[in-house]
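Student: Please help interpret what follows.
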Amino acid sequence: MVYCDGTNWISMGSGAAASFGTLTTSDFCAATSGTSISCTTGSTGSGNVVLSASPTLSGTITGGTFSGTFSGSGASLTSIGTSSFSAAGTANSTTFLRGDNTWASPTGTGPTGIGTANYMPLWSTSTALANSAIYQSGSNIGIGTTIPATGIKADIAGPVRVSGTGSEVCTNTQLGAIRYNPTGNYFELCSYP
């Protein structure tokens, strides 16, 4: 097929064919560049433009209804109407198209709140996050301090309470563990066996 660009006849290439439906005297197609055709239909024309041989279209394509198969990412497509979708529900700014072909509103809300870098998050309510008392600096943890001592994996600023019954198990998997014996009021270090 060839078309006129206003000066010359331009070939669309071998094997490419285009059918412009039923064009009337009010309808016309014209070249807008060396590789683009723009068709305008009058009030009485059918307005159908059918391209075959899978041509590549680029630029801005405007129309009321597009049918057929689209391939490509579609990342830059905008202003796509939803009236011709055969999905259940209502499409609007608060719904999304689910995988089961239904327009649905998102349920629930995500967590809210703010935090400070390096603090472990704490659920302050069932839906909100806040800072906890635990701070991480590199691979060191600080409780009550934001400057854990170098080489210390857990640096606790303030008193630490260890409680128990004094009968906690001491085996090779608890080596180095500390337990408190309330009967004798002393600490015991697990150094099994």
Summary: Residues 43-47 have pLDDT under 50 and may be disordered. Residues 113-158 form one domain.
